Amino acid sequence: METSSAPGRVFITGGTGYLGQRLIPALLARGHEVRALVRPGSEKRLPPGCTAVPGNALDGASYASQVAPSETLVHLVGVSHPAPWKEEQFRQVDLGSVRASVTAAQEAKIRHFVYLSVAMPAPVMRSYVAVRAECEALISATGIPATFVRPWYVLGPGHRWPYLLIPLYAMAERFSEMRGTARRLGLVTLRQMIATLVWAVENPPEGARVLDVEAIRRGGSA
Is residue 34 part of a domain? Predict the structure, then answer.
């Protein structure tokens, strides 16, 4: 049973990225203690109030000892601007960083692993989706309660061109054979994503949980 928790301690990988820089202030504003992994020398890129943990996202041993006493690990590391020709980078960065985070989470006895995944299945970006599915499987194999957040495309500053596709989504939803795919691969906003990640942190599951596009549009809550 999912119940809203009191402010806790959260460790974030990818804290200086597009979502991380917005998630951290949201968590701090709600009273959470936040620590974030950063490359050495990039500490100033973290929002004020967050504790920097220098390390290598692809090497769990470089930061595993600094994850505790966090109860929740939020993994946001991934290749920026995914594209079909970046398959090698997906395996090196996306999969490699999850392997590192899993090692660190197990050593720190993390109670909840929140992973930014991707909507699946999908008719495009197959290598990207396949690697994210492999990452989910690695996390699930640990037995740590986990939340898999599965957006397709997040609309926000610098990420607005898909607004042009909204009429196509509306048309697709009129046809039963396309409706499911259109909804599963729907667009979500940056605000909805941050609300969903905050909700996930504050409402840990007992096992594994998926928050798809429809759940993200509700901010994670049922």
Answer: yes
What is the domain range of residue 20? 9-153+190-217
pLDDT tens digit string along 44-80?
A: 999 999 999 999 999 999 999 999 999 999 999 999 8
Q: How many residues does the chain have?
A: 222
25 token code pair: 């202030």
Contacts 24+ apart (CB under 8 A), 16-22: 16/42, 16/45, 16/46, 17/76, 17/77, 17/80, 18/80, 18/154, 18/156, 18/158, 18/159, 19/76, 19/116, 19/154, 19/190, 19/193, 19/194, 19/197, 20/76, 21/45, 21/46, 21/47, 22/190, 22/194
| Residue 212, domain member (yes or no) | yes
Number of structural domains in the chain: 1
What is the pTM assigned to this prediction?
0.89
d(CA 131, CA 29): 33
If 0-12 CB within 10 Å is exposed, 13-18 middle and 19+ buried, where does residue 141 land? exposed
Q: What's the confidence (pLDDT) of residue 121? A: 78
